Amino acid sequence: MTATGLAATLLEVRQLGKRFAQRQGRDRGRNEGREPSPWVIQDLSFSVRAGEFLTIVGPSGAGKSTLLNIIAQTDTASAGEIVFDGTTISSRDPRALKPGIDRRIGYVTQDDNLLPWRSTLDNVLFALEVQGRLNDETRAHAETLIRTVGLAGFEHYYPHELSGGMRKRTSLIRTLVYDPPVILMDEPFAAVDAQTRTQLQADLLTLWELGRKTIIFVTHDITEAIALGDRALVLSKQPTRIAAEHMIPIPRPRNVKDLFALQGFAAVYERIRADVQ
Amino acid sequence: MISPAIRSSAIATALFRWRTLLDRVLVLVLIVALWQGGSMWFGAYWLSSPWATTTRFVEQILNGELLRHAGYTLAEASAGALIGGLPAVLLPFWLRRHPIVVAILDPFMIGGYGAPKLAFAPLFLLWFGVGMESKIALTASVVFFIVYFATLAGVRTLDPRLVQMAQIAGASERQIARHIVMPAAVPNIFAGFRIAVPYAIGAAVIAELISSNRGLGYLVQTGAMNFDTTSVFAAIVAATLLVHAANLLMNTLEALLMRWRPPLQSMMET
Q1: Average pLDDT for residues A27-37, to the nearest whole number?
Q2: Minimal Cα distance from A120: which residue of B?
Q3: In angstroms, rounded to a whole number, what is the distance separating the alpha carbons of residues A154 and A166?
Q4: How far apart, in whole angstroms, are the C-alpha atoms of residue A1 and residue A13?
Q5: Residue B48: CB partners within 8 Å, gap ≥ 6?
Q6: SS3 helix, strand, coil % of chain B, rounded to 5?
Q7: Which of B163, B168, B260 is the best residue to mutate to test the A interface, defined by the most A CB atoms within 10 Å of its own CB?
Q8: B52 with B37, same domain?
Q9: Chain A within 8 Å of B168 (Cβ-Cβ)?
Q10: What's the mean pLDDT when you consider all of chain B?
Q11: Chain B residues inside the 8 Å CB shell of A158
């Protein structure tokens, strides 16, 4: 089901399965034949090429965040494996997990998770700082990113002084600034209003055109999946599997604001919508 | 950038401040009046009057007596707060990665927290002598447990998503402790010290009361022995002012260190 030939596969998810551990409680001893917990994700496979913008659409509660957590190595896999750049990175053992695998997988989570005691600039510089890569060049790069997403003038504001959209932009460039080859995004724009979301999508595409990172972008919004992605995967309800795959035939650079007028948009939208249960 | 809403809220804040100040003065007047009434009822011999206390207070400030003794008590309380407070702040950080040790220590820490530390004062005097050391030991033991539990609560309520974010960005355990856990726990550490410092000053005074040759507790003790209630009150007023000064210092420090926090609106509502 993968489109081959364009570029090498960078990340591959093979028959991935996930079930959460049995709840520990008073009932535990009473149940003789302990019922195994249900599979949240089962037999899920897909691959991503280097430089590809992959979107994953699925209904709420489809285990989308769990999938990204397993790829980001903040959670364990119960079955199957994830191969990244030729090596298996997934694990059954929580102690063997390496979140972000040596800074090569960035993760823009659903909540902005900004450090409340750091200003916008210091939040953006955080990764560079802990990686010991803070110098004039990287600092200038950070400032460029801040300007690109329209946060100039807000460098010294604390997160509580920013709007929701500004916090999102900050959390976005906080990951982009240290340049991980793969970036996972978990519905990063779900909590902002429609106008702001369109602007943030446009910002993201602008930034992506500059560097062409590999992005896996999870969303429940079909329009967003089409606006951003080269390819969209549709997830089924639990246990989550890949229900369908769609190429997005809209040429780049795209203008997110006029998306509905573009040729081919309506057709892709209808096909994806039919697959989303 | 200042909107009318912000300006009107600034006016509301100013009004709130003045109102508070005015009402505080009224409460003070009421307390002094009650004190004066009590003094007249029981007689100044048993209960010194506010005026006599104020006179004695100013007198003892001017001749340096009060400042010398208060300085002594303050030194004991500060040393105790530092010696007890520093390990109490650091311990939960070391134990963060070892929840089993925290669980093992828990009943002992609760025991130490709940034990009447002032009852240890005679023991500390026995072990460390009548000098400063015994008072420092007592205040340190009082401060340690309060700050330990406050810091532990801060470390425990830490948002794990912030730690995960830092791990993904490539932060080491040490960097996480320094850049994530520590700043997140600062409000709790302050809350701990805010409760502990008045206790520290109180503990120092009480240890001095039991046995000493200097300090505000010593002034209280000699005043009572000489049936000089005016001196007792003057020393108590000095100890109270010391607590206020310490509190003011902490407020300033807290405001400086926690500028990143959104202002607490609920505190302003009347």
Answers
A1: 57
A2: B260
A3: 9
A4: 12
A5: B39, B229, B230, B232, B233
A6: 85, 0, 15
A7: B168
A8: no
A9: yes
A10: 90
A11: 259-260
Q: Are residues B192 and B70 in the same domain?
A: yes
Please give the C-alpha separations between residue A208 and each of A53, A179, A275, in angstroms, as whole numbers: 9, 11, 27
Cβ-based contacts of A160 with chain B (< 8 Å): 260-262
Superfamily grouping for domain A46-70+182-277:
P-loop containing nucleotide triphosphate hydrolases (3.40.50.300)
Residues of A in contact with B179 (CB under 8 A): 115, 126, 129-130
CA distances from A253 to A6, A206, A212, A265 (A): 18, 8, 12, 15
Complex ipTM = 0.87
Q: Both B169 and B247 in a single domain? A: yes
Please name the residue that has the structure tokens 């960005």: B169
Cα dist from B66 to B37, B56, B58, B196, whole Å: 26, 10, 9, 24
Taking a contact as any Cβ pair under 8 Å apart, which residues of chain A between 23 and 52 contact chain B?
none
Backbone torsions φ then ψ of B258, nearest 5 degrees: -120, 40
Same domain, B128 and B215: yes
What backbone phi and psi angles, to 5 degrees, belong to A57? -105, 135
* CATH code, domain carrying B217: 1.10.3720.10
Residues of A in contact with B154 (CB under 8 A): none
* Number of domains making up chain B: 2
In A, minimum Cα distance to B183 occurs at: A117
Q: What pLDDT is recorded for position A192? A: 82
* Range(s) of the domain holding residue B60: 48-268
Among B103, B85, B238, B214, CA closest to B150: B85
Residues of chain B with pLDDT under 50: 265-270
Residue in the block written with tokens 């951003």: A228
Stretch A219-225: mean pLDDT, rounded? 92
Give the one of A100, A117, A158 whose C-beta lies nearest to B168's C-beta. Answer: A100
